[in-house]
Every structure is written in structure tokens, then in C-alpha cells.
Amino acid sequence: MGKTFSQPWREMPKNNRGNLDYVKKYQPRNVDVQHLRVLLHGPVGAGKSSFINSVDSVLQGEITGRALTDGNLVEGSFTKKYKNYKITRQSDPNSHYCVSFNDIVGLEENRGVHVDDIILALKGHVRDGYKFNPLSPLNEGDEGYNPSPNLQDRVHVLVSVIPADGAVMITDEMVNKMRKIRRAASDMGIPQLAIITKGDKACPAVKDKVENLYKSKYLKQKFDGLCVRLGFPSNCVFLVKNYDKETSLKDDVDAPILCALRQIISVGDNFLNDKTRAVIGQTISQPWREMPANNRENLDFVKTYQPRNADVQHLRVLLHGPVGAGKSGFINSVDTVLQGEITGRALADGNLSEGTFTKKYKNYRFTRQSDPNSHYCVSFNDIVGLEESRGAHVDDIILALKGHVRDGYEFNPSSPLKEGDEGYNPSPTLQDRVHVLVSVIPADGAVIITDEMVNKMRKIRRAASDMEIPQLAIITKGDKACSTVNENVENLYKSKYLKQKVDELCVTVGIPLNCIFLVKNYDVVPNIKDNVDAPILCALRQIISFGERFLNDQQNNM
């Protein structure tokens, strides 16, 4: 628990002055808002009130304790009211800094705050000072209900606060509550971050030296687990040590608090400046991810790639996702780009009512143009699509990750593959295993991604994470979802609607933004086009890069 890396996996600034000045000088650009409203939520005893006190301490330059806390978890949440904390400016006691925090009753498995109350708070319907009723949620017409909230009343940033120590057990029921709240926030376009507290109580190395926060192997493990379990991108999760027993300020305690606070303000201000939900057909002036002007470099990278690990002849990529997501279509598109002509080896079907068209576990190799007897060194495995009550068994996909499913195995809809079955590989080699897991998600509304399907995907991703298999996501059918992309594929990364889809995927499935790629498959296009090739090649290059690092790690660990 006390082991550390030699180098921090996230750097803290050498000097806190830049972040402190940024926070103190911040003013919302939206004239309808005087202060950014941040809502902290999480389990009882997570350290929400302490984080408010810590921010107050950093900005005041001295230890404060306005938000009352209690370490007795047996009696439930110490916070009983919905209270907004503004922080007084040192230079003028009659004015406040332009960021404020709302504290709320903590989450518990069978008691604590009602999820519906938190969702009402997000919308601005909960008045400041409202005392939460443990027996029933707030209703329209109640004294604490605000029937006509303005933008200032609403929440602008939602922050999940999670403790790193074992004093609070985060049960599946509590996770489900938090995910329901996060989905509601996502529907409102509210940006979300997470703060992991009590690292000093969880790890002796951090207790001895706060600068070890981002060196602690134990906290990195907790960090990665949170990303998977609650669906946070890693760049939206921050470690802090609250001021709970110190009597004076310390730069190394201030630093992570200020880094988290700066990011909270940054994403909140972006939210305030773009209140209108993205609609289909709208574009931004500049793409949020640049495509290369020429595809030659990425194409050469893919074609010349060879695994450095001598035990592997080709990188094995497993595509998984809902029925009709475009997995087979993506395989055909990669084949098309590499062959230089339209191909269709992986059969696909647009009739979703009959379930998945893919029935077998099949590995697709791509023949080299220069030598029909050899193949490029990346291959794709297609698998039965996920459905709510039928389709692929999650256990089958996890067995495939481990290399236990033989190529050509025909999946049984009645029962998953078992040891001793004909299609079971009892002794998989590294070549048999999956080296990269890619989630394929459609952007159009033809496939409804239900909570049950999301849970299946997250279970698969957790298993892959336990095996340290790198993971990415591909969003397909952007041209079918957005008219501007249908007219011009170069609008893929300009479409507001598709950017919204990407952000939602980050939350629901828990994949970081830089691991999500938009593509348009070659399904109705009769000829090769550079602007269709470009996003496919960008995704393919990243898949190979991630997979190659995984193979090298396997070799180093032998």
C-alpha cells in the first residue's frame, strides 16, 4: 500500500501562484451569472465538506472550517441542508470570489439523500437552506421548491467526491445512484469531474509526504478503478489531501487542491458560455480534433507495422458493441483502406429485428497488396453483438479476451462457452489473446443503448482492465446521425451533435476523450475517398500504438 513510482504520473506545478491567481481573478463571461455554482456529491464521509473548507483555506491564506464536518459515519450524513458556500475575498470582505460550492446530504445504500433531490438541485429547483427530508424527496409546491430557476440557480459543475480509504464502502447500489445522477447531469450538458480524497489515510507514503499523491501505486489503482467503475475519463479525476488536521497552510497540500479547482472553473465557464444543447446539423468553426492533410504517413505506419514481441505475428484487436453498431462495417472499411479498393469480407446486415448477423468468432487478416501470400500485422476479431436480453454472453467475450475462444467457434445463444467444449482453447498463447479491445458505438438512433447493455459493456471493460488490455472506442454512422456529416465527411469533428455523443460516451461507458474516434464506414460509398480514409487511419494508428505498447509490456514482464 505504501509503494511508489519513481516519477509522478501527473505533474504538479512547481509554483502555485499561476493557479491561485487564475482562481482569484476568475469572473464568469456569461452576464447572467455572478458566480459559478459547483455541486459536490458522494458517499457519507467522503470529505465533501472538508474539501469546501480546504478551498476556503487556500483562498483565505489561513485554516478555516465554515462547512461543519463529523467523522462519525454510523449516524449518517452530518450535512442536513442544501447550503451554498461563497468564499469572501481577502481584499474586500463585502465581496466574494466567483466560484461557490453547494454541499448536500451524503449518499448511502438505504438512507441518505434521495437521488431525485440531487437531480432537482442540478436543475436549480432546490432553494438554498432547504432541509432534506429523509422520508420523501422534495416535491413541487413544497416550501423548499424553486418553481422557476434561472441560470444562476442551476448547477454548473457536478463533482463526485470519493474517499480513497476503506472507511466508506462504495457498494454497487451507491454506484448505481451516482451513475443515475451523472446520467441526469449529462442530459443537461453539465460538466463532471471527480475528486479522490483521504489519500493520506489510505497510503502511508502519502501520509509521510503529500508530494507522493501522484506517485502512490495504491492511489493509482484506486484512480483507475474509479475511472472504470463510475465512468470518468482519467483527465477528469483529481487526487487531493484535505486540510483536516493541519494548523497551517502548506504548498504541497495547496497544489493538488488548486489544480482541481482550476479545472472545475475551466469546465464550468465553458458550460456557461455554451448553454444551448448541440442540435443535429450544427457545426463549430474549427474541428475539435485535426485530421492530417495527407494520409500517407498513417497509411505507411499501418502497412509497415511489425510487432517487436517475437511471440506474436499479428496484433489481435477485438471489436465489441451493440448489434448493428457497425463492427463488421469497420473491418470492411479497414480492409478497403489497406487494399485501395472497396471490399466486403465481413458480412453485415441492416436488419436489427433478427438480432446479430455475426454468429461466429472469426479473425480477419488483411492480405498485403505486394504479396498475396502474406498479411499485414494487424487483425480484427468480430464477435456476436450485444443485446439487452440476447446476443453475446458477457462471459464468452471475457473468455475471448483471455484467448480461450478458438477461431471459428459458433456462439451458443443458450449458454456460454465452457471448459471442455469443442470451441474452448485450454492453453492460449499470447498470440491467441486479445491485445486491444475496441468498443464500437453507433451515433444514430437505430440502436438504443439501454442501461443493461451499458452494464454489460462496463463488465467487459473491467475484465479487460484487470488484464491490462488497452481500450478505445469508435463511434460509427456519424453520417447517418448528422446531416452536415452526410453532406461533407470533413465535418465529423466539427459536428456539435457528434461532439455531444462523444462526451456522453465518456460518461456512460467511461472511456477517455482521447481514446474515442469518429469514423464513417465504407458502406454506401462506391469509391475510395481521402476524407473517409483519414479518420479510419487515425483510429487504426492509435489502435496499433496502444496494442504494441501492451505487447512490449508483456515481454518485459516475462
UniProtKB/TrEMBL annotation:
A single GO BP: immune response
Gene3D superfamilies named in the record: P-loop containing nucleotide triphosphate hydrolases
Lineage, opening ranks: Eukaryota, Metazoa, Chordata, Craniata, Vertebrata
Superkingdom of origin: Eukaryota
Name the UniProt record assigns to this protein: G domain-containing protein
InterPro entries, alphabetized: P-loop_NTPase (IPR027417)
PANTHER family: INTERFERON-INDUCED PROTEIN 44 (PTHR14241), INTERFERON-INDUCED PROTEIN 44-RELATED (PTHR14241:SF1)
